[in-house]
Design brief:
The chain has 847 residues and is of the alpha+beta class. It has 30 helices and 19 strands.
C-alpha cells in the first residue's frame, strides 16, 4: 500500500514552523545577514553618492564641450585654437585650487570668459543678486567686475558668507579680497566652486598670460581626433587633450582602489555570516534529522525536501537582507554627515555629497544577502536530502552526516589554487586574484580544520583523559570531528580575518611612523597654507627667513603637479634641498642608490611610478617642465604613503635651474642650540609680512596629526574588525546551542549515571575553551597568512606602496584570551538554554 504524497501547499507552513521552533537559530542567522548587507550596502551608498556628486561637478564645469586642452597654456595658444576651422567655440579658463586663510581645504576657483563660457558651459555663468530676486537676465558688466566672485551653494554654506560679503584668497603671503556678487545655483548641490572673470583671475592671482584649460565645442561634422593630431605637436609639454568623459573617469579612478577595498571589507561580515548560516543550518538539520526522515516516509520527495530547507533559507535571507538594506540606508546617511563621502580617505575634499539611492544596487545587495544565505544552506540541504529515511530515524546517526569533513584533500586543493591565483597580476589595476586567493585560503582552512583538530587532539597524552569531565570533553571533540569543524567555522572565519586586518593595519601604522621619522629631520616646519596652490614663499620671503636670527639651517621645498600620461591622474613633482650623494638619509628608499653618469639630472620616483609607468632605476624619464620635455635619470625608488598616483623627487637646485620657478611652499627649520622652536616661530612671524598667516608645527606635532589622520582613515576598518569578532561569538553561541540540542540523549544519559548539572556545565565550558583555543591558534596562523597576502599583494596592487610586517602581539593575545573565556561562557549559556527542554526526557523518548 503506497503512502499518498504530502500536499505541496504545506511546504511554506512547514518552513515557517521550523523557523519559529528555533527562534535563537533564526535570529542569529538573521542578524548575521542583516549586519553583512547593512555594512556592504552602506559603504556602496557612500561611495556611489560621492562619485555621483563628483561626476555632476565635472559635468557642470565641462558643459557641452566636446574636448578640453589642459595644462600650463599660453594665451597665444587659445587664439590659434579658436581660429581652427573645426572649432565652433573655444572657452578659455584659469583653474586653480585657491588657498583660503583659516580653512583646511582649498576652494576650486575658475576664471572664465563669460561670453565664451555662456556658449559652452552656461552653468558657470554667475547670477547676480538682482537676477535671483527679479528673474531678469544678468548684466554683462556684473560678470566682468574685477573683484566679483560667484559662489556655489555649498561654497557659501562652507564659508558662511552671503551675497555682498567679502572673502579672502591667499596669494603668496598676501591677501586678495573678493566680493560675493551672486550665486552659481546649477553648479551641483555638494560642490564647493567659485567663478571669477578670467582677466581678473590672471591679474589678481599673479598669473598673467596663463591659462590652465581650453574647452572646445566642435562644429558639426568635425572630428576630435583630427583636431588633436593637428595640434599635438604645437601644445606645450605636459599639456593634454581629453574628453569630458575621460576627465570624469580619471578622477573617479583615483579613489577606485580605496572604494573597492572598503566595499570588500564591508562584505567581510556577510562572508563570515554565510559560515554562520552554514553552521546553524547543519546543526538544525542534525537535530531535525529524524523529523525530516519521517516526512520522507510520509511521502515528501527528495526534491521537495530540498525546496523545504531552501525555503527556510530564503525566508531568513530575504528578511535579513531587507532589514539590512534599511539599516544600510541609515548608516550611509549618518556616515555622510559625520565623515564625508570618502570615510576619511581624503579623495573627495571639496565635495559634500547627498545620499544617492540606486534601485539596481539595492536589489543587488538584497540578492547578495539572499545568495549568502542559500550558499550557507546548500551543503546541509543536499546532505539532508541524501539521507536514507530508515537510517535517519534511528538515534546516533548524526556524525555520519559530517563524515565528509574528515577529508582534507579539498582543503589542500584550495590552498594550491590560492597559490596559483597569487601568481596572477591585477585585473584592471585591481587585485581581484588576490581577493580570490584569500577566499580560497579561508575556505580551504575551514575544510582542513576537522582533520587537523582530530590530529592535534590525538596527540594529547592518555593521562590527561583520566578525569571524568576532561576525558569526556577530549573524547567528544576527537571522535566527532564533524561537530568540531562546525563549531570552528564561525570562530576561524571571523577571528582569522580580524587577525589579518589587525596585522595589516598595525604594519601600515608602524611603516608610516618610520616613514615620518625619515622625512621629518628638522625641529620646526613652516607651511604657507594647509592646501591649495596660490599660497607660496617668494624669493624675497625666503631671503627674509634665511636672515632670521636664531636660525642655523633651512631647507625649502616646492610642490607642483605634472602629467606623464593623459590617461592617468597627474603626479606630484616634489623639489627638495638635499645632498644627492646621501639620498638615503633624506628619503625612505626601497633599494640602494643607483650609480649615475656624470651630468645626468637625478630624480627619485615613488613605487607607484614603477608600477603604473614601468619606470626602473637607471632609466631615463622625460619630465614636462616649463613647457618642454626634460630628460632626467631615475636614481632610485622611494616609499610615498601620501600620493598613490605617483610622485617624483628632485633637488630644489635642479628644479629652479630647469623651470626658473624660485617660489617655495614649505620650509624645514633648525633653530640654534640656545633657541627653542617656540622662540624661532615668534621671530619668523615678526620677520615676514603677514607672518600671522603662516602655519608652524614641530616634528612631534606633525607626527601626531598624521597618525590621527591615519586612524580616522581606518576607523571603518576598526569597526569592521569589531563586527567580525561579534559575528564569531554569535557563531559560537549558535554552534554550541545546536550541538547541545543534538546531544540531548548524551546529556540525559550522563544525568542518569550520576553527573550533576554543574558537571555538564564544566564539560561544556571545557569543550568551548578547547574548541576556541584550537580556533584561536589556527586563526592566528591563518590570519598571519592572509595578512601577508594583504601586505604583499593587495596593498601594492591597490595603492602601489609596500610596508614591513609588524604583529601587534599584545592586542592579539589579549583578544585571544578574552575570546577563549567568552567562548567557554557562551558554551555554558547556550547549553543551559538548550537543555531546558529536558535531557532525561529525551533519553526516555529514545527508549
Amino acid at each position: 500500500m503506497s503512502v499518498p504524497p504530502l500536499s505541496r501547499g504545506l511546504l511554506p507552513q512547514l518552513a515557517w514552523a521550523a523557523l519559529r521552533a528555533q527562534p535563537g537559530r533564526s535570529l542569529s542567522c538573521l542578524l548575521a545577514i542583516l549586519i553583512g548587507v547593512a555594512l556592504g550596502y552602506a559603504i556602496h551608498l557612500i561611495n556611489h553618492s560621492a562619485v555621483s556628486e563628483f561626476s555632476r561637478a565635472t559635468s557642470a564645469i565641462s558643459g557641452a564641450a566636446d574636448l578640453s586642452l589642459r595644462g600650463k597654456l599660453p594665451d597665444a595658444l587659445y587664439a590659434g585654437l579658436a581660429r581652427d576651422p573645426a572649432v565652433a567655440v573655444a572657452s578659455p579658463m584659469l583653474e586653480v585650487m585657491a588657498s583660503l586663510p583659516g580653512q583646511r581645504q582649498p576652494l576650486h576657483l575658475l576664471g572664465v570668459d563669460a561670453l565664451k563660457a555662456g556658449q559652452v558651459s552656461p552653468r558657470l555663468i554667475g547670477q547676480p543678486e538682482a537676477v535671483v530676486e527679479t528673474g531678469t537676465q544678468p548684466s554683462g558688466l556684473a560678470l566682468l567686475e574685477q573683484d566679483a566672485i560667484f559662489l556655489s551653494p555649498a561654497a557659501r554654506q562652507w564659508l558662511g558668507v552671503k551675497v555682498g560679503d567679502f572673502m579672502t584668497v591667499q596669494i603668496g603671503l598676501q591677501d586678495v579680497r573678493w566680493r560675493v556678487a551672486g550665486h552659481l545655483p546649477a553648479a551641483g548641490a555638494g560642490q564647493r566652486l567659485g567663478v571669477i572673470d578670467i582677466a581678473a583671475a590672471q591679474w589678481r592671482l599673479h598669473r598673467p598670460g596663463e591659462l590652465s584649460r581650453i574647452d572646445i565645442k566642435l562644429k558639426a561634422g568635425a572630428e576630435a581626433r583630427a583636431l588633436q593630431q593637428r595640434w599635438q605637436a604645437r601644445i606645450p609639454a605636459g599639456a593634454r587633450f581629453e574628453t569630458p568623459e575621460l576627465a570624469e573617469q580619471r578622477s573617479a579612478d583615483m579613489s577606485r582602489a580605496y572604494r573597492v577595498n572598503l566595499t570588500v571589507l564591508g562584505l567581510v561580515a556577510l562572508f563570515t555570516g554565510s559560515f554562520l548560516v552554514f553552521s546553524t543550518q547543519i546543526l538544525s538539520l542534525l537535530r531535525r534529522r529524524s523529523q525530516l526522515a519521517l516526512l520522507r516516509v510520509l511521502g515528501l520527495r527528495r526534491d521537495e525536501l530540498v525546496r523545504l530547507v531552501l525555503l527556510e533559507a530564503i525566508l531568513l535571507g530575504g528578511l535579513g537582507s531587507a532589514l539590512g538594506i534599511a539599516a544600510g540606508l541609515g548608516l550611509a546617511s549618518v556616515a555622510l554627515q559625520l565623515m564625508g563621502g570618502d570615510l576619511g580617505g581624503g579623495f573627495f575634499n571639496g565635495v559634500s555629497p547627498s545620499l544617492q539611492v540606486e534601485p539596481v544596487a539595492m536589489l543587488g545587495f538584497f540578492g547578495l544577502g539572499l545568495l549568502a544565505t542559500l550558499a550557507g544552506s546548500l551543503f546541509p540541504t543536499l546532505e539532508a536530502a541524501k539521507a536514507r529515511p530508515a537510517r535517519a530515524l534511528k538515534a546516533g546517526d548524526e556524525e555520519s552526516v559530517l563524515e565528509k569533513a574528515r577529508r582534507f584533500w579539498p582543503g589542500v586543493i584550495l590552498f594550491g589554487l590560492a597559490a596559483l591565483l597569487l601568481q596572477c597580476g591585477p585585473i584592471g589595476e585591481l587585485p581581484i586574484p588576490g581577493y580570490a586567493a584569500i577566499a580560497c585560503v579561508l575556505v580551504g582552512a575551514l575544510w582542513l580544520m576537522p582533520w587537523l583538530a582530530g590530529q592535534l587532539l590525538g596527540l594529547i597524552p592518555q593521562s590527561w583523559r583520566q578525569s571524568p569531565i576532561a576525558g569526556l570533553a577530549l573524547t567528544q571533540l576527537k571522535e566527532a570531528p564533524g561537530y568540531a569543524g562546525v563549531g570552528l567555522a564561525g570562530i576561524l572565519s571571523s577571528f582569522s580575518l580580524m587577525v589579518a586586518m589587525a596585522i595589516m593595519v598595525a604594519s601600515f601604522r608602524v611603516s608610516v611612523i618610520d616613514w615620518l621619522d625619515h622625512l621629518l629631520p628638522a625641529d620646526l616646519y613652516l607651511r604657507t597654507a594647509s592646501n591649495g596652490e596660490t599660497a607660496f614663499l617668494s624669493a624675497a620671503d625666503q631671503a627674509l627667513i634665511r636672515a632670521t636670527p636664531g636660525l642655523t639651517r633651512v631647507e625649502f621645498s616646492r610642490l607642483q603637479w605634472i602629467s606623464l600620461d593623459a590617461q592617468r591622474p597627474a603626479v606630484a613633482l616634489v623639489a627638495r634641498s638635499f645632498d644627492v650623494t646621501a639620498a638615503d638619509r633624506h628619503l625612505p628608499l626601497v633599494d640602494a642608490i643607483t650609480p649615475l653618469s656624470s651630468g645626468a639630472t637625478p630624480v627619485w620616483v615613488s613605487e607607484a611610478i614603477v608600477d603604473l609607468y614601468g619606470i626602473r632605476p637607471g632609466q631615463t624619464l622625460a619630465l614636462p617642465l616649463a613647457g618642454r620635455q626634460v630628460p632626467v635619470t631615475v636614481a632610485g625608488v622611494w616609499r610615498d604613503y601620501v600620493r598613490q598616483q605617483g610622485s617624483v623627487v628632485l633637488t630644489l637646485k635642479d628644479y629652479q635651474r630647469l623651470t626658473g620657478d624660485l617660489n617655495a611652499n614649505d620650509a624645514a627649520l633648525w633653530p640654534a642650540p640656545s633657541v627653542s622652536a617656540t622662540m624661532l616661530e615668534a621671530a619668523l612671524r615678526r620677520q615676514l609680512p603677514r607672518g600671522d598667516r603662516l602655519e608652524f608645527a614641530e616634528r612631534g606635532t606633525i607626527r601626531q596629526i598624521s597618525l590621527t589622520i591615519f586612524d580616522r582613515s581606518f576607523a571603518v576598518t576598526y569597526l569592521l574588525e569589531a563586527v567580525a569578532v561579534l559575528v564569531g561569538l554569535l557563531g559560537i553561541g549558535v554552534s554550541f546551542g545546536g550541538q547541545a540540542l543534538a546531544r540531548l540523549r548524551e546529556f540525559g544519559m550522563l544525568r542518569h549515571i550520576g553527573y550533576r548539572q554543574r558537571d555538564i556545565d564544566q564539560l561544556l565550558a571545557l569543550e568551548g575553551a578547547l574548541l576556541a583555543s584550537l580556533g584561536v591558534v589556527a586563526g592566528l596562523v591563518l590570519g598571519w597568512l592572509i595578512s601577508q597576502i594583504l601586505i604583499r599583494v593587495i596593498n601594492p596592487q591597490s595603492f602601489h606602496w609596500s610596508m614591513q610586517t609588524s604583529i601587534p602581539w599584545t592586542m592579539l593575545l589579549t583578544i585571544s584570551a578574552v575570546l577563549v573565556g567568552l567562548s567557554a561562557l557562551t558554551a555554558v549559556w547556550a547549553g543551559r538554554r538548550a537543555l531546558a527542554v529536558g535531557a532525561i526526557r529525551a533519553v526516555k523518548e529514545d527508549w
